[in-house]
């Protein structure tokens, strides 16, 4: 799976974290002050779409293999299913980190 969207989202989160800590963003991160603006919702949405596409491709391969399609082999089907599973687990971990960060922000005493 191409994890470009997830990597981009993580870079944004790192950039925001360093800015919140009072430091300048690292050279590899994307920063709004450097002229490039990135819509967090867009990055998140595209990442979820990539995971969905990976899962659908794996399910199609499995269905074709179960239906007797001679083009696919078991190894390719199993690899595609594992890639889909790993990408989904990665998305869950990112979601958990976002929920945790949201809860931390909401618990800040003003």
UniProtKB/TrEMBL annotation:
> Is Ion transport a UniProt keyword of this protein?
no
Per the record, the major location class is other
What are the record keywords, sorted?
Bacterial flagellum, Cell projection, Cilium, Flagellum
Q: What is this protein called?
A: Flagellar hook-basal body complex protein FliE
Signal peptide (from-to): none
The protein's gene is named fliE
Looking at the UniProt record for this protein, which Gene Ontology cellular component terms does it annotate, in alphabetical order?
Answer: bacterial-type flagellum basal body
A single Gene Ontology biological process assigned to it is: bacterial-type flagellum-dependent cell motility
